[in-house]
Amino acid sequence: MHNLRAALSMIGAMALFAVEDMFLKLLAERLSVGQVLVMTGTLATAVFWALIALQGGRLWTRELLHPMVMLRNLGEGLACVLFLSALVLGDLATVSAILQALPLMLTLGAVVFLRERVGWRRWLSIVVGMIGVLIVVRPGTAAFQPASALAVGGVLMLTMRDLATRRVPPGISSKTLTASAFASLVPSGLVWMALQSGPVLTPDLTETLQLLCAVAFGLCAYMLMVAAMRLGEIAVIAPFRYTRLLFALILAVLVFGERPDAATLTGAAIIALAGMAAMWREARLARRGR
User: Fold this and answer.
1) Which terminus of the chain has a smaller tally of CB atoms within 10 A, N or C?
2) Nearest to 248 by CA among 32, 67, 99, 46
3) 274 CB burial (10 A radius; 0-12, 13-18, 19+)
4) What are 208-260's pLDDT values in tens digits?
């Protein structure tokens, strides 16, 4: 029963994350990427800090200046700039498909930078997943989109973020770490606004509602994901992370009128299957170690 509830919570979280991406893409149709990041980061940070304060948590600790925390926040900020830019320039379906390669890139990064050992099965999953990414991106062909390169860069930044997270001091709570990551969107957005040197526009009523919905759906998704991780076994619930791709494809078709071609769908399926295989293998090894 716990695994069932956890799986449903994970599916719900992935659906809400996909809806959050939809609202961010809509919001950035008129407003600049930098402005959207500043508004989103400010509102999300305020909400998260308020939740921490109500629970009696510490709003600030000097450990947030730890190099690994700062590296984590740098990766978060750069990833958001790249992904939101990719969403503006490209298709939601394509960007979401590339995002699913993150677990594979994280495994590869752990091997290269953290000297972790990986067996041949997970190496095979990484290679197959990268083939799936190439099928989606299609570099050097007429179907290549610059947005795909931005999305790949975003995955690399998220990989840096997650690798840095493994070296963050254990005394920093996850909520404080998450709030600081939201706060990192503000300077990232301000720098991007300065580089773009475009006008700062006043959001209209529709855009204000889209902003509120994006933050609300994102925070609810985060809470559901945490609940899922606490309730169920990782081996059971981890593959349900890939339902985010399914929801993103549905929204891409219904809201933005996208029509993903066979190559995009094939590559996305390969990435998802390779990622699920790697997750299942890691969870099985972790269980055997316990």
Assistant:
1) C
2) 99
3) buried
4) 999 999 999 999 998 898 888 777 776 678 788 899 999 999 999 999 999 99
Helices and strands in the chain: count of H runs, count of E runs: 13, 0
Buried b (16+ CB within 10 A) or exposed e, 39-71: bbbbbbbebbbeebeeeeeeeebebbebebbeb
Q: Which two tokens stand for residue 218?
A: 């994102």
Helix (H) or strand (E) holding 89: helix 67-89
Q: Is the pLDDT of residue 290 over 60?
A: no
Is the Cβ–Cβ distance between 34 and 191 less than 8 Å?
yes
| Residue in this structure with the two tokens 């309730």, named with its chain if needed | 231
Interhelix angle 262-289/243-254, rounded to 10 degrees, is 160
Q: Other CB atoms closer than 10 Å to residue 134's CB: what's the count?
A: 12
For 196-211, what is each residue's pLDDT tens digit?
A: 877 889 999 999 999 9
